[in-house]
Design brief:
- It is a single chain.
- The chain is mostly helical.
- It has one domain (about 1-120).
- The chain is built from five helices and no strands.
- The chain is globular.
- It starts with a helix and ends in an 8-residue tail after the last helix.
């Protein structure tokens, strides 16, 4: 079980770090996801990119892993409005010509298992197990 947790931590670290970097490489790809009611969408895109890089890198070190896990939970809660916006309005993302329909709701709901994964995989592991 220890190796499964460690593997999942490194997978999450790579995912969040890559996703965060992409906010800087291609910020325009994230613009359609931003609900109109949120202020300063371009700033929020960059801020969420910074947050993803920070939690992603934080997952790599045992000393910061638990904090980074909670950071992932907070980050996913913070971006939930954007995912709800995508689902409600069938927003096309990442250059798609049209929205993904029902798959947008999967993306929205999938935030909960991602939060649980971050919490579970960053808990202290019993050295005997």
């Amino acid at each position: 079980m220890r190796w499964l947790r460690i593997g999942l931590v490194y997978l999450q670290a790579a995912f969040y770090t890559f996703a965060g970097v992409m906010h800087f490489v291609s910020p325009a790809a994230y613009r359609p996801m931003m609900p109109d009611y949120l202020p300063a969408p371009d700033f929020l895109i960059l801020l969420s990119g910074v947050a993803e890089v920070v939690v992603g890198l934080g997952l790599l070190w045992p000393r910061t892993r638990a904090w980074a896990g909670w950071g992932v939970v907070a980050l996913l809660l913070a971006v939930w409005p954007a995912n709800l916006h995508i689902a409600l309005f069938n927003v096309p993302v990442f250059g798609a010509a049209e929205g993904a329909g029902a798959l947008n709701w999967v993306r929205f709901v999938f935030q909960v298992p991602l939060m649980l994964l971050a919490w579970w995989s960053t808990r202290p592991v019993d050295p005997a197990g």
